């Protein structure tokens, strides 16, 4: 007998599992299909983010930063730490324990909320029927009043550097190194490339990042990107911009990469090479030819602003649809869709999705950049505040970077908050909360911020928008 559900979700990543839990909380009979297996061959929930993405990379970033601080940053505090070493397998094992705890936590949440987990590969057929192919190859058909497609994304492969997960690895392989490579190459100076490059650089690798674009972090505010380039270069990352990889050759556990830049053809040899040139949507075997769901020219599922596809009752969320490939964006889309299926008029504000790069210092932003606004002809006032003038940052010996607040020159409404520095992600989230309620720079400037905190840097940057900063000299208005 065919199982029937109000909602069937294909994919248990941060979009899918959140959508399934929310739908169940709203009283809908819900099933979630997942096929991802961990290294023990068991189904693991949480998608790329929990298993081989956001969470494991942050675990390694934190471990590597603590090691770097112990080696390089303790002396200034009067702490003597001689002969500090790193046990890479232990660091990776800790990361794996965190993954296991979190993926197990999602399974527990499914049970607590009454979500039925169907193990296997989900494929949407005509008439909102879903075929589930179990790991042993057997199939079953389930029927759904509503279907949510949340199949996620995977790393992009490039022909000049084919991944073997030994010498040439993707972001997944880069989380599993058992020793520190002497020389490490990274193709791609995006979020993933910079984060993974930072991890292994802190542990002693000589890291070269090869980026095809001429511009560093083009999505970030130019002032912030410039500061980031300066800081990361100072930390030892060699960043080669305008460099296009044309080939690679693996010999005796090393890889020689050929690329062209302004100086012509170049070659560099590395012990390991990470390919981090972006991600693409996973739609392989997801849709039957007669499912009615349409893809755009780049392979993303076509949806409207509420994530509805071309088939009534079928939705798609997360990395498989337009917009930033961010876990928090996927999760909120999942909540919105579950709410809409339950009959609520939920909407999502795509203008205020924060972006974060978890290097040290962190780089984060929400809203528009100064160059975007100037390109749109919007007159703006800008306020900045450096962490070098923050008492809390000084106490923590973490004074690199700045906070930047951009406001409309006429209305004073805050249009963007951009930070490079300690706790950048948390400060930008404060900005996002204010912006969601239409805050002005003056509003932020009139609020009482506790002292001493890093948050005061946001307060001072907001005051600086209108020339009222207290703890730095204000720019004279022309």
From TrEMBL:
Chemical reaction(s) catalysed: N(6)-[(R)-dihydrolipoyl]-L-lysyl-[protein] + NAD(+) = N(6)-[(R)-lipoyl]-L-lysyl-[protein] + NADH + H(+)
Cofactor note: Binds 1 FAD per subunit.
Cofactor or coenzyme needed: FAD
Limits of the FAD/NAD(P)-binding domain: 5-334
GO MF: dihydrolipoyl dehydrogenase (NADH) activity
Principal subcellular localization: cytoplasm
Domain Pyridine nucleotide-disulphide oxidoreductase dimerisation: 353-462
InterPro entries tied to this protein: Class-I_Pyr_Nuc-Dis_Oxidored (IPR050151), FAD/NAD-bd_sf (IPR036188), FAD/NAD-binding_dom (IPR023753), FAD/NAD-linked_Rdtase_dimer_sf (IPR016156), Lipoamide_DH (IPR006258), Pyr_nuc-diS_OxRdtase (IPR001100), Pyr_nucl-diS_OxRdtase_dimer (IPR004099), Pyr_OxRdtase_I_AS (IPR012999)
Superkingdom to which the source organism belongs: Bacteria
Enzyme Commission number(s) of this protein: 1.8.1.4
NAD listed as a keyword: yes
Enzyme class name: oxidoreductase
UniProt record similarity statement: Belongs to the class-I pyridine nucleotide-disulfide oxidoreductase family.
Subunit structure: Homodimer.
Note: The active site is a redox-active disulfide bond.
PANTHER family noted in UniProt: DIHYDROLIPOYL DEHYDROGENASE (PTHR22912:SF224), DISULFIDE OXIDOREDUCTASE (PTHR22912)
Name of the protein in its database record: Dihydrolipoyl dehydrogenase
Phylogenetic lineage: Bacteria, Pseudomonadati, Pseudomonadota, Gammaproteobacteria, Pseudomonadales
Gene name, Swiss-Prot/TrEMBL: lpdA
């Amino acid at each position: 007998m065919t199982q029937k559900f109000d909602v069937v979700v294909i994919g248990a990543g941060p979009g899918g599992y959140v959508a399934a839990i929310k739908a169940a909380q709203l009283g809908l009979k819900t099933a979630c299909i997942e096929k991802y297996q961990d290294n023990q061959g068991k189904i693991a929930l949480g998608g790329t983010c929990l298993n081989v993405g956001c969470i494991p990379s942050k675990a390694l970033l934190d471990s590597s930063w603590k090691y770097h601080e112990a080696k390089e940053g303790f002396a200034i505090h009067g702490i003597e730490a001689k002969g500090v070493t790193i046990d890479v397998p232990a660091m990776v094992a800790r990361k794996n324990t965190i993954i296991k705890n979190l993926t197990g936590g999602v399974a527990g949440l499914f049970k607590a909320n009454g979500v039925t987990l169907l193990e296997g590969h989900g494929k949407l057929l005509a008439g909102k029927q879903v075929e589930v192919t179990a790991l042993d190859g057997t199939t079953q058909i389930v029927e759904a009043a509503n279907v949510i497609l949340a199949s996620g994304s995977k790393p992009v492969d490039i022909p000049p550097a084919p991944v073997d997960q030994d010498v040439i690895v993707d972001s997944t392989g880069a989380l599993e190194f058992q020793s520190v490579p002497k020389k490490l190459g990274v193709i791609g100076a995006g979020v993933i490339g910079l984060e993974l490059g930072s991890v292994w650089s802190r542990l002693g690798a000589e890291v070269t990042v090869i980026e095809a674009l001429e511009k560093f972090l083009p999505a970030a505010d130019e002032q912030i990107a410039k500061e980031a380039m300066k800081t990361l270069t100072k930390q030892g990352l060699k960043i080669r911009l305008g460099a296009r990889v044309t080939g690679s050759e693996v010999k005796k556990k090393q890889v020689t990469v050929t690329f062209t830049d302004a100086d012509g053809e170049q070659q560099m040899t590395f012990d390991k090479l990470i390919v981090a040139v972006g991600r693409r949507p996973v739609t392989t075997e997801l849709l039957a030819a007669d499912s009615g769901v349409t893809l755009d020219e780049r392979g993303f599922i076509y949806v409207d602003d509420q994530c509805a596809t071309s088939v009534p009752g079928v939705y798609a969320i997360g990395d498989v649809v337009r917009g930033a490939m961010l876990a928090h964006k996927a999760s909120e889309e999942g909540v919105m869709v579950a709410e809409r299926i339950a009959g609520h008029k939920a909407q999502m504000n795509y203008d205020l999705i924060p972006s974060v790069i978890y290097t040290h210092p962190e780089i984060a932003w929400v809203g528009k950049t100064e160059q975007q606004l100037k390109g749109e002809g919007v007159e703006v006032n800008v306020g900045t505040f450096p962490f070098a003038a923050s008492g809390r940052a000084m106490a923590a010996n973490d004074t690199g970077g700045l906070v930047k607040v951009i406001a409309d020159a006429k209305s004073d409404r805050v249009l963007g908050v951009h930070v490079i520095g300690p706790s950048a992600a948390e400060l930008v989230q404060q900005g996002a909360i204010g912006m969601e309620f239409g805050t002005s720079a003056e509003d932020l400037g009139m609020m009482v911020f506790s002292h001493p905190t890093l948050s005061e840097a946001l307060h001072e940057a907001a005051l600086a928008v209108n020339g009222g900063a207290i703890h730095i000299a204000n720019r004279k208005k022309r």
